[in-house]
Structure to design on (249 residues):
């Protein structure tokens, strides 16, 4: 496993990419409401990236057709934007996107409730998934292990009776979208790769209300929960420092 250690100058470049990803996600979030299509969100994100001088990280990656992944309700990740997918009151939609600036990648995701009438269990799913990401980021520092990070997610999620998706994991990131190491959202404390100063990780819990199993649809991209239960996804790009985590997105 060749883990790329970034210099402070490289991390500064990644901070710029990360800030642009955040701006794009905030812009898209402001447009999420009943009646909007996922293609509307895609168009807005593409325009915002152009405006901010960023290249989309996802479009063309392994043949993926869009700048956003938009995954609704039981879709876990990699949902493809479409003019036929209309957001409805009470839905949740996870928006995942990335950009490249000056050769360095940023990657982030958030799950957004559509409208005001959100079921309590759905609201809880979003809160718990976000809390699991925050807890994982809290474990990041030089000398900790990937097992510490994964265990933090797993503990928060399973304490609430939800489950962690295992087929998809976080990843290293830098001059490529996906670098070593893989960053699972489950694990045992003290186990796995030790974190070193200058590593940059995309940490991204994917959490299901029901069982952890997922399957990929015929489009070859969209992953859904096997049992049809709701799923949420939150992600930040994070640099490892001596003091702890530096969130770049």
């Amino acid at each position: 496993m060749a883990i790329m250690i970034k210099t402070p100058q490289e991390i500064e470049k990644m901070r710029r990419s990360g800030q642009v990803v955040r701006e794009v996600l905030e812009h898209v979030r402001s447009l999420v409401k009943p009646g909007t299509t996922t293609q509307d969100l895609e168009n807005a994100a593409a325009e915002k990236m152009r405006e901010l001088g960023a290249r989309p990280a996802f479009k063309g990656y392994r043949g993926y057709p869009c700048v956003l992944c938009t995954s609704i309700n039981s879709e876990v990740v990699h949902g493809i934007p479409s003019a036929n997918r209309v957001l409805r009151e009470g839905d949740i939609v996870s928006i995942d996107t990335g950009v490249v600036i000056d050769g360095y990648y940023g990657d982030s995701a958030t799950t957004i409730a559509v409208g005001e009438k959100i079921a309590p269990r759905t609201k809880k799913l979003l809160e718990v998934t976000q809390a699991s990401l925050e807890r994982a980021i809290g474990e990041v520092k030089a000398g900790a292990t990937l097992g510490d990070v994964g265990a933090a997610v797993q503990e928060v999620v399973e304490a609430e009776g939800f489950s962690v998706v295992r087929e998809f994991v976080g990843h290293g990131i830098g001059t490529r979208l996906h670098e070593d190491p893989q960053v699972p959202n489950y694990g045992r404390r003290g186990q796995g790769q030790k974190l070193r100063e200058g590593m940059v990780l995309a940490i991204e819990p994917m959490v299901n209300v029901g069982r952890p199993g997922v399957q990929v649809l015929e489009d070859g991209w969209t992953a859904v929960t096997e049992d049809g239960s709701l799923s949420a996804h939150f992600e930040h790009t994070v640099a490892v420092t001596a003091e702890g985590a530096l969130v770049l997105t």
